[in-house]
Design goal:
Blueprint: E1 8-12, E2 20-25, E3 28-33, E4 39-40, E5 50-51, E6 53-62, E7 76-78, E8 83-86, E9 97-99, E10 106-108, E11 118-122, E12 138-141, E13 153-155, H1 157-166, E14 172-176
Parallel strand pairs: 1-14, 4-5, 6-7, 12-13
Antiparallel strand pairs: 1-2, 2-3, 6-11, 6-14, 8-9, 8-10, 11-12
Length: 177
């Protein structure tokens, strides 16, 4: 049996300082929001930048109470009220999923604003993890008007659900100018 080659979802911006870009596959392109500090090759925790580079697509989380289970071939699970993601570089679980309450700084995955109704986890700084090089780089639902993210990639919920149908384990997101 022939192995299917990995596919790439691209994210392009006109300049590394831009907070908006185009995300897509081939001719299927949609607008996206990026980090408030634009793109950076050397990502640092809390810098507000989206890391440029090639990142594997790891898994999908979704809010069962807000969204039907997305159609995808990626590993998937629903978000629980106590789910979080550690963003404390000094903690042993830095850049990993955790459960709240948690003793170190950790982002809450169960959000009231709807941004994490659907989340695609990107393999940035996870294998191996390097303390302080950035955590929780996701594709998630965009704010109104595509306002900048804290370093993630954000598209409309409907666009994200369409992209999920296309993505498979082993695929990558390529981010650059």
């Amino acid at each position: 049996m022939k192995k299917r080659p990995n596919r790439q979802l691209f994210v392009r911006v006109l300049s590394s300082r831009s907070t908006r870009g185009i995300c897509g596959v081939g001719s299927r392109q949609v607008a996206c929001a990026l980090g408030r500090s634009g793109l950076r090759v050397l990502k640092r925790e809390g810098d507000g930048a989206t890391p440029s580079g090639r990142w594997p697509v790891r898994q999908v989380f979704y809010r069962l109470d807000r969204v039907m289970r997305p159609r995808t071939l990626l590993p998937i699970r629903h978000i629980r009220a106590d789910d979080g993601w550690c963003d404390d570089p000094a903690d042993r679980n830095y850049n990993r999923a955790i459960r709240h309450p948690y003793p170190a700084s950790a982002e809450q995955m169960w959000r009231a604003d709807g941004l994490y109704d659907v989340v695609v986890v990107l393999g940035h700084n996870d294998r191996p993890r390097m303390r302080g090089r950035g955590s929780a780089i996701f594709m998630h639902v965009a704010r109104e008007g595509y306002r900048p993210t804290e370093g993630c990639i954000a598209v409309t919920r409907s666009d994200l659900l369409k992209l999920l149908v296309w993505l498979r384990a082993g695929d990558e997101v390529v981010i650059g100018t």
